[in-house]
Amino acid sequence: MGLQPRAARSENGRVMSVRVGFVLALGLGLLATAALLPGAVAVWIDEKGHTYVTDRAGPPTPGARRLRPSELSLGWAGRARGEPIQGATDSSDEDDRLARELLAAREDVLRGEVKRGVAQLRRLHRVHPGRPDVAFLLAEVERRRGRLESAHEALEMTLSVAAELPDGWHEAARALLREINEELELAGEAGVSREAMKVLHAEHFRIWYDHQFAGRAYGDRVLDLLEQASASLARSLGRKLTDSLEVRLYTRTHYLEAYKHRFGFATVGFYDGAIHVVSVRRPRRELLALLIHEYAHALFEDALGGHQPFFMNEGIADREEEIARGRPRLSRGDWRQLLDALRSESWIPLRSLVEGFGGLQGKRALLAYLESRAAIGLIEERHPGAIARWLNRCARGAGWEHALRSETGWDRDALDAELRELVRSRFPSDPLASLDSYESGAQ
């Protein structure tokens, strides 16, 4: 989803208009502009899909509908998509400057430069403690890093010093604060071992979960989500597991205690013969997306007998997760990142992603996942249903590359070349898009 900013001024108030493909997927890109001004700032959408951030008393254009905070997809979850919305670059207005700095910090986090992004967000929060956009983004990032106390402090400060929050944002801040308080309460319970877990046995699953998630009702809700994940992947990948699958769910704090050193980048779940994921006390669709991702890994291992080729494994799982989140295609920002990788000679050849992503951290790890998902999307776009057929060929004993060639005509290098060509074709008016430095010697 590419966001094309068109900032404008009016006599009756300041308005930022943004053309979007699907407003509910804006996430923090829109959230970060939702408090450009103190006072009653509101977000509107018109019948053509334009969104407006304005301090006007009424709709900025006939037929526009005001959006509630809950419609703006406040959760960061490390999966925000779309190019950043920026203020007018030639303006010296304090609000425009703050918006640019806030969005730059967000982009740092999304690129994997988390320390730099967090440092900028903390600085902005010290200078502007009453700004809800700064507090929300800082709280979400700190929460995803397991820094619950810091997330709590950021929201508490804003709620205590802001003279008047725009309509709806006070309630949204309180709701987020309640979730953080709940996680702090669970993490702070004394005298109980992290190893103490409850178990629910079902026909296809053995569900283990932290004792803090309470009783049987929690396990039943998770079981329902797992059955949904299984049915969804049976439709898209044509496979189901025959053996019982172990699933373990953790509070965020317990997960980080156990596994924060296992990977070179932040995670909220993994599969190692069992599914391990972070959950909250009241499972929601966020958990369904995570379960679909890890269940796809289980199906992959069941078909191929291992985790390789890793770029196919992660690409399939990531694509299925994003479909569950309502994002079946890469955004324009994603394609731009891939093009930038070609230009900067940082493209990772798919042949080097067969055995794993070991040693990749930060931006390089994110690029590996993005290339993998793009490769799977390319295969499905050119050869619908090929991934399901490929898995079935492998399950019957075919080598993975032979099966890939049979379904698509590509081996790993041909697929890599086709993907690079697709990336360039997404930007036909870009004079540098045709310059593929990879072909001129970059490895």
Tag the structure with descriptive keywords.
alpha+beta, 3 domains, Serine Threonine Protein Phosphatase 5, Tetratricopeptide repeat, 443 residues, disordered C terminus, 5-stranded mixed β-sheet, 48% helix, Glutaredoxin
Give a written overview of the molecule.
Strand 3 and strand 4 form a beta hairpin. With 443 residues, the protein is an alpha+beta fold. Helices cover 48% and strands 11% of the residues. The strands form 2 sheets. The protein has a 5-stranded antiparallel β-sheet with strand order 1-2-4-3-5, with no helix packed on it. Strands 6-7-8-10-9 form a 5-stranded mixed β-sheet. The N terminus and C terminus are likely disordered.
Parts with pLDDT < 50 across at least 5 consecutive residues: 1-40, 69-92, 189-195, 435-443
CATH topology of the largest domain: Serine Threonine Protein Phosphatase 5, Tetratricopeptide repeat
Mean pLDDT, all residues: 75
Do you know the CATH architecture of the largest domain?
Answer: Alpha Horseshoe
Which radius of gyration do the C-alpha atoms yield?
23 Å
- Give me the side-by-side strand order of the main sheet: 1-2-4-3-5
Task: Please tell me the total number of domains.
Answer: 3
Give the N-to-C terminal Cα separation: 29 Å
The amount of beta strand, in percent, is 5-15%
Number of strands: 10
CATH class of the largest domain: Mainly Alpha
Helical stretch count?
Answer: 15
The major sheet is characterized as: 5 strands, antiparallel
| Envelope shape | globular
Strand-pairing-aware structural class: alpha+beta
- Name the helicity range: 40-55%
Q: What is the chain-wise order of helices and strands?
A: EEHEEEHHHHHEEHEHEEHHHHHHH
